Amino acid sequence: MDVVTIGETMVLLTPESSPFMRYASSYSRKFGGAETNVAIGLTRLGHQTGWISKVGNDELGKAMYSFIRGEGVDVSQVQFDPEAPTGLYFKEIRSGDRVQVQYYRKGSAASRLTEDDLNEEYIATAKYLHLTGITPALSESCYKTVIKAIDLAKRNNIKVVFDPNLRRKLWSEDRARKVLLEIAAQADIILPGLEEGKFMFNEEDPDKLGQLFLNHGASLVILKVGARGAYYFTNEKSELIEGFSVDRVVDPVGAGDGFAAGLIAGLLEHLPIDQAVRKGNAVGALATMTPGDFEGLPDIEELDAFINNLSREDIQR
């Protein structure tokens, strides 16, 4: 196994007949969750991934389980909860840069994850453990599960990749800041956005933020700065790797997860850090060009063509 990730994936409903839920009479049904977005992105790039979670023992949970398994993600550690539902969320895409999200996930099956749901032998098979700040926000038991997973990873010399993925709607600012900083201190690689860095350290200068995260415990910091690209920081070097331009942003949700998938793929392939970050930038850019949280994540051929600026006609020849 290359990467194991832990967290909630939900049924995603998007209004079709109108951008606004209040006027919509029809919706598309998809799935979305930061951790499975990353896992699916990695499988499309040729890497083995596993997902630890719970879903409701309901029709939507069964559909999600089958779909994610069909994308090549190992779901052997996903459990069906007979007493709690699969979580839902609605996404209004009013324009490419105006997206509204509404969650219906309180008391969901995934929010009932506990430390007992972790299998140390399974986690020990991975090279990386991927975590986000969403999972510990779901419940106290989810928080404890994440902390236990980090302990198991450390015990087995597995690198921890942490994306803060701040979701203000899920918890108080004080609690969020405390927990995100706690997990960041134990992460080997951290992937904050500029706004998340500002939230955690009350600092918005990229160079200062990079140093603050390094001093806090990480050995590699990747600071995402949107369309501009991403900075990387190590104790030896820092550099801005420019992003890729796209003609039109269709759906920005999932771009950060795409970035994480591309970056981790690059690290698994032992690319130099600057090239791994560039790969992350490319996957993140591609993710914004298609509706859905992970639908635009590329396979190896599509990614190489995008990076090398080839047209679809060139790919097919």
SSE topology:
Blueprint: E1 3-6, E2 10-15, E3 27-32, H1 34-44, E4 49-56, H2 59-70, E5 74-81, E6 88-95, E7 98-104, H3 120-123, E8 128-132, H4 135-138, H5 140-155, E9 159-163, H6 173-184, E10 189-190, H7 194-201, H8 206-216, E11 220-224, E12 229-233, E13 238-242, H9 255-268, H10 273-287, H11 300-307, H12 312-316
Parallel strand pairs: 1-4, 1-8, 2-6, 4-5, 8-9, 9-10, 10-11
Antiparallel strand pairs: 2-3, 6-7, 11-12, 12-13
Helix pairs in contact: 1-9, 9-10
Which CATH class is shown? Alpha Beta
Q: Kindly identify the CATH topology.
A: UDP-N-acetylmuramoyl-L-alanine:D-glutamate ligase
Radius of gyration computed on alpha carbons: 18 Å
Shape: globular
Number of domains: 1
| Strand runs, count | 13
* Major sheet description: 9 strands, mixed
Average of pLDDT: 91
Count of DSSP-assigned helices: 12
Cα-to-Cα separation, first versus last residue: 34 Å
> Helix amount, in percent?
25-40%
For the largest beta sheet, what order do the strands appear in spatially? Answer: 5-4-1-8-9-10-11-12-13
Can you walk through the features of this model?
Strands 5-4-1-8-9-10-11-12-13 form a nine-stranded mixed sheet, sandwiched between helices. Strands 3-2-6-7 form a four-stranded mixed sheet. Helix content is 38%, strand content 23%. It has helices at 34-44, 59-70, 120-123, 135-138, 140-155, 173-184, 194-201, 206-216, 255-268, 273-287, 300-307, 312-316; strands at 3-6, 10-15, 27-32, 49-56, 74-81, 88-95, 98-104, 128-132, 159-163, 189-190, 220-224, 229-233, 238-242. By secondary structure, it is of the alpha/beta class.
